[in-house]
Amino acid sequence: MLAGDFNMDLLHIEKDKNIEEYFDLLTNNKFMPLITIPTRITKTSKTLIDNIFYNEFTNNTISENFTVGISDHLPQFSLMPSNVRKSSSKKSNKKYSRKFNKINIDKFNEYLNKVNWWMPENETIDKYSNNFLHIFNQILDIHAPETEVKTNKNTEKRNAEP
């Protein structure tokens, strides 16, 4: 995954040779943009300069812009199915996963829009980022909770064999 404010406006791919070359370089290496609508909107312009590129696609990948005004850039997110994770408890062999294909994006965004994302001037970006992730994960737990993955003993034995 590649993500960031690359200042390459993908909305002008056909007008700017540098942007075309940037896009071609990424797509030739199997990276495709997950965000395809404007990410920075002002009274006079719209640009797609904040990008998330990914090279492992599934039907369960969900990507959107947040519709909250944290800055003049709209924050983006991408929910990608991950491999099943083991419980953090050392004694437990339980595995957990989220079902992102069941998430209601409109309700998810509705919850995110209700959060006051204002950051005090003396707040560090690290603390703000940790707070953002904490709140985001709480909302994610409501809309796509982690559920225990049931496995049968035969499958576990086969997967454990070298």
User: Over all CA atoms, what is the radius of gyration?
Assistant: 19 Å
Total count of strands: 10
Number of helices: 4
Helix/strand/pairing category = alpha+beta
Proportion of residues in helical segments = 25-40%
**Spatial shape:** globular
Kindly estimate the percentage of residues that lie in beta strands according to DSSP.
15-25%
The arrangement of helices and strands along the chain is: EHEEEEEEEEHHEH
Low-confidence stretches: none
Question: Would you kindly provide a brief summary of this structure?
Answer:
This protein has 162 residues and is an alpha+beta fold. The protein has one domain (2-81, 99-145).
Write the layout of secondary structure elements.
Blueprint: E1 2-5, H1 17-28, E2 32-33, E3 40-41, E4 46-47, E5 50-54, E6 62-65, E7 76-79, E8 85-86, E9 95-97, H2 105-113, H3 125-143, E10 147-149, H4 153-160
Antiparallel strand pairs: 1-5, 2-5, 3-4, 6-7, 8-9, 9-10
